[in-house]
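Oxidoreductase, Bifidobacterium breve MCC 1114. Tokens?
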Amino acid sequence: MIIDMPNTRTREIAHKIEQLHEERGESATGRVLTLLIATDDTNLEHALEVANSASREHPCRVIAVVPDTAHSSESNDETNASEVAAEVSANRDNPAVDLTDGSADPNDSNLNAQVRFGADAGAGEIIILRPRNGLINHPDTLVIPLLVPDVPVVAWWPTTPPSNPSKDLLGAMARSRITDALNSNNPEATIERLRRNWTPEDIDLSWTRLTVWRAMLASMLDQPPHLPITAAKVTGKADFLPMELLCAWLHLKLGVPVETEFVPDAEAVTGVYLTRDDGVVSLERPYEDQALISMPGQAPQTISVPVRTIEDCLTEELRRIDPDEIYADVINKGWDLIRH
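Tokens:
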């Protein structure tokens, strides 16, 4: 079910959601979190598909904020922005106040919306907010009345995130802030900005893509004999941010420099080789869905390891919205080791 609500107000959206819940005989109390998505029209539908898939495991209310810059009036923007700013200043602590009433034109709320329910919204409901003019600058005041009470708020930027997510208006209200520097317009510059402004609530999906690699490597090194690693090498795609984070993790945890080797036509990490006195411990991915484990003195072992999708990564981070201490060490300490 998809319901378009042009020129609407936040109280009307909240009322419509309550009405839909009553008609279906269900309650929003079954939601385990509110997922805020800051994106644009180009990436909106893909982001919602990913959120829908993740919501199967984590029933949530998804609120996507998509600024409608194409229909914002430049001549009215300054007036509307000042009016809305005044309303925000006076009423920020009172979510019951509907700031969409602040437009100079009583017939124009500066907000279009869409509500998706049922099969079109995964295991929850989706609210798409399209503010224009002055409301573009105050997405938090639009979102607050629509949050599910007493559940955590998670903010997700599917593409280029703000330089400082914790200071962003949506990010500031979130218990967990999920970015994806790999999908930004400049991954290297993005991760550098995120590092400078990192807080414990921040996580990047470039790191989450490495979960399986890290788990398998840790399991391999847990097997005897527990000999020290004297050298390490990682192979894979050139200029691939997850590969750099993997090198930073290995350098930090093993205490040895990590050599990199770029493989032509590779799409991701293709192998990790750890040298010990008794030989080389290696983990390779010759095929997208298989990994090859080689240990000194043992026959190579092939295991099934499907490529992680963005849905897998988001689902994992929604499952664990507490600070990731290992990522904190890698981004704050390990990254400097490989850069130096």
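Residues 74-96 have pLDDT under 50 and may be disordered.
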